[in-house]
Amino acid sequence: HSYIHERATSTQQTGFSFVAQCRSWLPAKVGGILWFGVDDTYSTVYCPMYCGITEIPECFRQGNGDMLTYSETSAFWLFNRVTNFVYSRYSDMIKDLQNVQDRLESGFVKDVHKFDDRAKQSDGDALAEQLNDFSNRAAERMMKEWNNLDRFLLVKYIDGNIKKEKDGKFERTE
Fold it and tell me: How far is residue 37's CA from residue 51's CA, in Å, rounded to a whole number?
């Protein structure tokens, strides 16, 4: 028998993706990070999940929604809601999405660098607690920023118009 089933990347059918970062110079629980993202690879945020975590952040947890059950606390559903809206005016909205995406991912890279120095000095339960806390706070920050993006896009692009902005705020007319 022959079988073929290509797996295209960065399509709207993507459920989740990750980039594995393996840093052998650090203790195993600190050196391994899954940069985990949900929905389309092009419009996701890769959030750092240390390999040493013992608790999964709520937004990524199994049982928090599924393909037929919406959940407001699920990253999968939040990212799908935003991305599906972005499809409607992609050339305009993708720029706003990428601003938030870039800010979050750049911040996570800096946060990981700072955290590594502290985490590699811990061990056992204290280390697991620190790793859980770090990855959970990163996921919570991502969810908060993406919820803000969802509302921002709705206001900015409501009814097919584009609201003008100045200094990060919408301009009001008299």
Answer: 15
